[in-house]
Every structure is written in structure tokens, then in C-alpha cells.
Amino acid sequence: MPFLISDEVGVTEGAVLETINKAVKVGFFDTRLYEEKQVLTSAGIQRRFFEATARRKCVYYEESLLLVEVNAYINLVNVNNNEVNVCNNSKNVDNNQQRKVKESKGKESKEEKRKKFAGARLQNSLIPVIQHYQTNIRPIANQVEKDKLSAMVDDFGSEAVIKAIDRAVLRNKRSLAYIQGILQRWEADGYDAPGQQYKVNTPDPERMKDIENIPF
Question: Segment Disordered: which positions (predicted)?
């Protein structure tokens, strides 16, 4: 073992042995197991190991090397014992937990895909609106202006926003606020052309459909 460690970290075997001996001397490793079996371990190391592996299906151990009480752990198998592997007969809590985690990740993955698809769809709808706005109104000055256009597309649809831009140009009212006002008026009162007025009780989905079909 000293040779393997010294070769790995690039120090002499003597330095490795000196470090190990000092660690044993101060109680970092168990003296008896080191002297009798050349095993570096301690009660603290074993306790932390068994606690960390408590949810594994099986953990194998050698009784002659134990320094802690293991009766509290139900997933341990003595490698020197020929009894039936108790792990095969116990309820596999770990597998159930892993399955739940996988199902949760699957749901999260589907939700992420849905959000990405919706975002991409909105972005694709926004591109022609931005182009139409910059061609007919003015170049977009900042991110705030772009975000407002994006919100309009999200609320009313790209076709309706483009038609509202055209209406603003027709009336020589080239401002984002005016375009927003047109969209809100169309949503509330209907398109202001003969034969396109809504009734008071017209459902919102029908209004949105009519807005998108405005023959501008």
C-alpha cells in the first residue's frame, strides 16, 4: 500500500509510512486493526460509512473488521456468513425512491420542453411584428420597447398587432401607446369597421378570433 500511495502522489514510501504511523499514533486510525490486519479504519469512519449507505439495497462487511454496532442497519450482509442475503428479502426502499425521482425528473423535463416550445413560438411570432414595427413606426430604441411589443403579441397575437400598427400608421399616430390603445379598444368594443362590431356579450375567444381576421 505505501508503494501505491507514494507512486500516485509522488512522494517516497518512507514519507507515506511516517504519515500513516503518526495518524495511527494520534488515534486517527485504529491501532489494533492496523497492527494485526494492516487495515486503516476507525469507529468514526465506519459509522459515517454505514450512515451514508443506509439507503443502499445491500452493503457487505467483514465482521472481524467491525468497530461499531451494526444491528440498527437492516441492509448489511456479512461476507463470511452463508445465510440468505437479507437484502433480497427486504423491501427495496431505495429502488422506490429512485423510481419516484426519475418520474419527477420526467415531469420536469416535459414541463421544461413545453416552456421552451412556448418561448420559441412567441419568439417566432414576435419577429415579423418587430420587422413591421421598425419598418413603419421607428427602429426599436431599447429592450423596454421590445418587451412591450412582446407582451402585445402574447396578449393579442402577432396578426392583430401588425394590423394595429397599420392602423396607427394610417392615422399618423406612430407610438407604442397608441398601438396598445387600438388593441385594447378592439378587444373591448370590436373592430371599428361596418359589420365588424361585437355584441356586448361576445365571448373573448370569439373577439380574439375576429381581431386576427380583421381584413386590413
Answer: 88-114
